[in-house]
């Protein structure tokens, strides 16, 4: 057999399980050899001395080109969002395909695929968002799509146009049990938020800051408890996304102690921002409006605890970008009348890995292996992509980030190459930065610049989550 297409030499390869100094041989887009010294017989040799060679980041919670209400436009489409992902050391992202009310899931998917096709700089795979669980969606469409490899979907307990009732959640969970899909849940209590929002508006407390006042921790804790109870009743595993505080995390721990399969995710905003950031002059606070809102320093510490002790399974960005200085974004005219109308969501697709590396690995809170697990391997395992993705192993796709652990910089928006006009993490001091991203053995980013002339990311169909294990049929009656 002739040489390799690409050889990465002299680097330190870190997987979720172990770290080793070794060379990586790549042929046909896959890892074909790992050894102390693989020689130099290759079309291209990269010297990775002093660098970490990591499985490319997998961001399993991003929003791209998602319909966001009248007059509001998301700042990233597939081209800009996946470009920014590559800049940040990611090789695969999982955006959400939103079913709008009255729309079939298949129709939503066809439109979403058309947006992605030919425009992605890293690989993509879609979760579904089920917002209209009609009889035909539950009986035919959803099971057929799960069969086709769309093996995870998100449901919402809040947002006017998206929230499902408890009965509807139970019904979609039952479909998940019968088909082997993984349910992801946005756990915030819609009625409580509505009650508090209306009261705040009556009192004239409408500034961005009150977005956080309208969604206190109790709103998230209660919904997390209820979601876990519904998962227990239907006997399904559950992924609780974007957990922001220790009280919600305690509900997850309690569920696990009771033997339930509860998975959980947190995001950079819950480790680094607080509700005080929403207090900016004039409308500046709108830059930080997301749900659940950033909390306080105590909640940050509780989230770090969950990162350190294994309570969190994945660290995602919840990249949901809206331009700030834009009437189609955070400064929508209605948003000036009340926080209720400010588009929810903040960007973070490129900043996610550097923030966790710098604050987590460099500051000694987590090991390099745990970093890889939280940012890549666990995403692949939970969402049915492993071992093709999320690990550097013989036969896996050569999705790799070369990481300079000593690079120091100040985070500024111009480094991130997204479609937004700000980063909520502006000015953060960062140690550790991705210097090269390879998707299936092709270099797509080198030293902060995109390489190549055309986007080479593709759509990746998924198997069942390792944590679900496939279809189970109806839960036994007690
Ligand atoms: O505010 C947020 N998180 N927006 C994105 C949509 C969601 O709930 O994930
Ligand atoms: Zn959500
Ligand atoms: Zn989200």
What does this structure look like?
The structure is a single chain. With 478 residues, the protein is of the alpha/beta class. It folds into two domains: 4-54 and 391-450, Urease, subunit C, domain 1, CATH 2.30.40; 56-361, Metal-dependent hydrolases (TIM Barrel). It is built from twelve helices and 20 strands. The strands form three sheets. Strands 8, 9, 10, 11, 12, 13, 14, 15 and 16 form a nine-stranded parallel beta sheet that branches. Strands 3-2-7-17-18-19-20 form a seven-stranded mixed beta sheet. Strand 2 and strand 3 form a beta hairpin. It is globular, with a radius of gyration of 21 Å. The termini are far apart. Bound molecules: N-(aminocarbonyl)-beta-alanine (URP) and zinc ion (2 copies). Residues 61, 63, 318, 320 line the site of one zinc ion.
CATH topology grouping of the largest domain: TIM Barrel
Radius of gyration over alpha carbons? Answer: 21 Å
- Derived from helix and strand composition plus strand pairing, the structural class reads alpha/beta
> How many strands, what sense, and barrel or not for the largest sheet?
9 strands, parallel
Indicate the overall shape. globular
Look at the structure and name the CATH superfamily of the largest domain: Metal-dependent hydrolases
User: Roughly what percent helix?
Assistant: 25-40%
Could you say which small molecules are bound to this protein? N-(aminocarbonyl)-beta-alanine, zinc ion
Q: DSSP strand (E) fraction?
A: 15-25%
Low-confidence stretches: none
How many strand units? 20
CATH class of the largest domain: Alpha Beta
Q: How many helix segments?
A: 12
